[in-house]
Fold:
Amino acid sequence: MTISMSGADWLALFLHYVSLSLLAVGGAITTAPDMHRYLVDNRGWLSDAQFNASIAIAQAAPGPNVLFVALLGWNVGLNAAGLPTALLGMTLAMLGIMLPSTTLTYLAASWGHRNRELRAVRAFKQGMAPIVVALLVATGWILATGTHYDLARWPLWLVTGVTALVVWSTRIHLLWLLGAGAALGWSGLV
Amino acid sequence: MPSLPAASGNPEPATRPMPRSPRDLFFSFTWLALQGFGGVLAVVQRELVEKKRWMTREEFVEDWAVAQIMPGPNVINLSIMIGHRYFGLRGAASALAGMLTLPLLVVLALALVYAQFAGNPQVAGALRGMGAVAAGLIAATGFRLFSALARNALSLPTCIALGALTFVGIALLRWPLVWVLLGLGSAACVLAYRKLGPR
Structure:
């Protein structure tokens, strides 16, 4: 698809991501529905297929999932004119989503480090610890089961369970496990 | 504020491993990110805590708590926290750059070839298999970090109760994360605050 982007449009793209940055508690992916509403439904800068492909690619690739934002910006730019605007779109989207939250996190990290002996700071870290640890287990559970429990997926659950046991009890390198999972899936066993 | 003496009751061993330089942080985080299929957190915990021993499990959980509660991508926040721990602003910037630069190029490269492979059932199967493994990695990271709760100010039964409530709320009842963090989180912080007492 082809679109035309004015200077004001680029600014709007940047500001949209700036506005989402501080709302993304729990990861940038939690704001994906709003990105879809804005980029696809509202502005028509991306097709539905491009939006879904951007998320799928970033999830398949190694690295932080927030890179799907870079791909969204890249594709908006590709639709506009080509490679130079693709780079522009990618840069604006990533700067927009990253600058506010990283600045805030940096300030919180330095403040928390300077005041690490304060009772409130210690209480926050100690109190949150059991919750964030349990959140990791819950995240694994959700990733394994998906949005609804489908019994036909039991081989995948088995892979998840065995992986968790192996990682818990051995020091095997994680890439071996990922490779084994890929091989099982490739051969159609799970 | 003048620099504080080492945290009371927890003296740092002199030989404790740590990153040699911001450059070391950059390359370490690049390597961590490139191994992180389906999530980088499990790799960060495994490499930095279990292998390199730059931080204890307790320190990792503390940084993760802040990274989780702040807006923005969690592992990005975590890289900023860890980088800042060692080299301040330069460390935070190095770790962040390591986490993003090379993985960004990989993602762009994948985007270029995606169309040829999107419909391939074997590729889809491989991704499905890796997704199931990634789910196990993240759950195991949680299991491993449970041991960090042994020295928590909250008693072990309290920690277990809070953890169980969190799991039921998020995994089984699918409550929104923000509710759980605000609701259970503030209750837990108040409990810890009272437990710690004034000093």
